[in-house]
Amino acid sequence: MKLNERSLAFYATCDAPVDNAGFLHKKGGRHAAYHRRWFVLRGNMLFYFEEPASREPVGVIILEGCTVELVEAAEEFAFAVRFAGARARTYVLAAESQAAMERWVKALSRASFDYLRLVVRELEQQLAAVRAGACPPPPPWYGQEIRALRAQWLSSRAQP
Amino acid sequence: MRYNEKELQALSRQPAELAAELGMRGPKKGSVVKRRLVKLVVNFLFYFRTDEAEPVGALLLERCRVAREEPSGFSISFIEDPERKYYFECCSEEQCQEWTEALRRASYEFMRRSLIFYRKEIQKMTGKDPLEQFGISEEARFQLSSLKA
């Protein structure tokens, strides 16, 4: 399949917001060794470079449709990016600390376009509801006025 | 660049935002128009030969520019090389409008900017952060400061 790889490479290295970045160890294949690579998450694309200063990624993992889970592995702080399907590949990655692993698992499990679209649609509806004149927030002095009235009422009721 | 082609193929079989048979012409000089089944899925535009199940190719739609091309078509190019255009021919003005609008909204970066905009507006009007319910209010990618002019 053809893919606009040049544009992909530019997207990998442009100054759009990076969603996470750091060193991860990537298992080459089923029986292969781990390679330390510089990973950059941008949107639903997980790019990996030889090192932070590299001008082009070695590769990219398109994350749409994946699940992320912790795994038992020889490496510490390992997790897996899994895809559904008969011959689908599982990417085993290992972070360099517990905190880094948790950050990656969280970031990757929410990286899909589908998820983002869901959140945007939800906010779109919320904004429409607010604009349609649902209750505006009460002004700050509201509480004080009510308290004063209530105190007045209580004291009037206390009269024999 | 290596990429997980099997997953991209699987993605091309997912339900599409928009799909239609359009005329398509590649960016190379001397390209001819070919009929292609064009399918928009998340931030990818897939194109198939009309009788085949696997796509001929895919375009990632980040940092792209969608422009109207007369008479009733549009083009997609990318920021780093604006003269290199993929051309598409529609059968009507309405179809062209439908596609250009959908394609302009079809990038992750556009979604991110929309989210930040809605968040800001809702916060302004209600004093509350709507992302708290999703547990993602602290994520760097949704911070107001990450919006660049």
TrEMBL record, chain A:
The keyword Phosphoprotein applies. SMART domains: PH. Pfam families: PH. It comes from the Eukaryota. It is found in: Cytoplasmic vesicle, Clathrin-coated vesicle; Early endosome; Golgi apparatus, trans-Golgi network; Recycling endosome. GO terms for biological process: endosome organization; receptor recycling; retrograde transport, endosome to Golgi. Residues 17-113 form the PH domain. CDD domains: PH_Ses. GO terms for molecular function: protein homodimerization activity. The keyword Cytoplasm does not apply. Keywords: Cytoplasmic vesicle, Endosome, Golgi apparatus, Phosphoprotein. InterPro entries: Boi1/Boi2-like, PH-like_dom_sf, PH_domain. Its main location: cytoplasm. GO terms for cellular component: clathrin-coated vesicle; cytosol; early endosome; recycling endosome; trans-Golgi network. Belongs to the sesquipedalian family. Plays a role in endocytic trafficking. Required for receptor recycling from endosomes, both to the trans-Golgi network and the plasma membrane. This is Sesquipedalian-1. It comes from Propithecus coquereli.
From TrEMBL, chain B:
InterPro entries: Boi1/Boi2-like, PH-like_dom_sf, PH_domain. GO terms for cellular component: cytosol; early endosome; recycling endosome; trans-Golgi network. It holds the Pfam family PH. It comes from the Eukaryota. GO terms for biological process: endosome organization; receptor recycling; retrograde transport, endosome to Golgi. Residues 15-108 form the PH domain. This is Pleckstrin homology domain-containing family J member 1.
